[in-house]
């Protein structure tokens, strides 16, 4: 049987645990959750910029964010499916992938983001999203199915074609093989995004700290 002393000791340890854990609890923003998207074509540096932006965004807003990158979420899954179907785990450009897997990956990403936003959790989302941006879907909370009060901001990462190719060759990601081997065909898909008040373009050719900080300020407005 537990003594009063042992119960008191356990209670003290539990209160200390709560104090230690309190700083780790996610701060929710249910009245106006943020969805910040880092988008752009392959090899432009979306993931690198998003990871660099995350601590600045947290510092400037005082809010927490859920970080969601398409390659992390679906990389292994897509590789397995494509190995079973086209016998090429690195295939992200064939008609089979584009017709049977691509849209479902993006729908899944948006569903994960939606679930967090409905809970009041801000989201930083990383992926090309060129099709969804061209259609206008990413600008509209209703079309996305996210809370209507969601503050949507998009960073479109630009990089000229030649430099993007150089960086893709340098990083040697097997998923870029088709693009590099069919570059003339691939670049027809590198179209500019539409002009929209919530879409902010960032030229990532020569990184500039002041320009990057200005981008952050635009994303958290």
What characteristics describe this protein?
221 residues, 11 helices, alpha/beta
Write the SSE topology.
Layout: H1 4-22, E1 34-39, H2 46-61, E2 65-69, H3 70-85, H4 95-100, H5 102-118, E3 122-126, H6 130-135, H7 141-144, E4 151-158, H8 161-171, H9 177-181, H10 183-186, E5 199-203, H11 209-219
Parallel strand pairs: 1-3, 1-4, 2-3, 4-5
Helix pairs in contact: 2-11
Order of helices and strands: HEHEHHHEHHEHHHEH
Figure out the total of helices.
11
Rg of Cα set? 21 Å
Q: Strand fraction band?
A: 5-15%
Report on the architecture of this protein.
The chain is 52% helix and 13% strand. It has 221 residues and is α/β, with parallel strands linked by helices. It has a five-stranded parallel β-sheet, sandwiched between helices. α2 (46-61) packs across α11 (209-219). The chain is globular. The mean pLDDT is 90.
Compact overview of the structure:
The chain has 221 residues and is an alpha/beta fold. It has helices at residues 4-22, 46-61, 70-85, 95-100, 102-118, 130-135, 141-144, 161-171, 177-181, 183-186, 209-219, and strands at 34-39, 65-69, 122-126, 151-158, 199-203.
